[in-house]
Amino acid sequence: MRSRKYHAKLMDDLQDPAEAAAYLDAALEAGDREAFLLAVKHVAEARGGMSRLAKTAALNREHLYRMLSKDGNPEIQSLATVLQALGLRLSIEAA
């Protein structure tokens, strides 16, 4: 029960672009590739699901699932395309 409430709240929060960006940034900062890819999947789910993301990003849905799987290893351009389709972008800042 508690897990469902958390998931529902997370999905609601991730609809806000600023919240989604902060969530992805925290996952990236943790330095765990699997956690970051899972976070991208969570943002996609909150924004209409993987099918919608695949269509918006003009990517094959199966390829998208593989790319964001725990064993996925997306190229930077593919990741940039996915993030752009989610209304986000990659950026670099001084440490």
Describe the structure in your own words.
Helices cover 67% and strands 0% of the residues. The mean pLDDT is 93. With 95 residues, it is mainly alpha-helical.
Please name the defining characteristics of this protein.
mainly alpha, 6 helices, single chain
SSE sequence, one letter per element: HHHHHH
Helical/strand content category = mainly alpha
Instruction: Please work out how many helical segments DSSP would assign.
Output: 6
| Average pLDDT over all residues | 93
User: Which percent bin holds the helix content?
Assistant: 55-70%
User: Radius of gyration, Cα only, in angstroms?
Assistant: 13 Å
What fraction of residues sit in β-strands?
under 5%
Give the low-pLDDT segments.
none
Distance between the termini: 40 Å
| Largest sheet descriptor | none
Number of strands: 0
Shape: globular
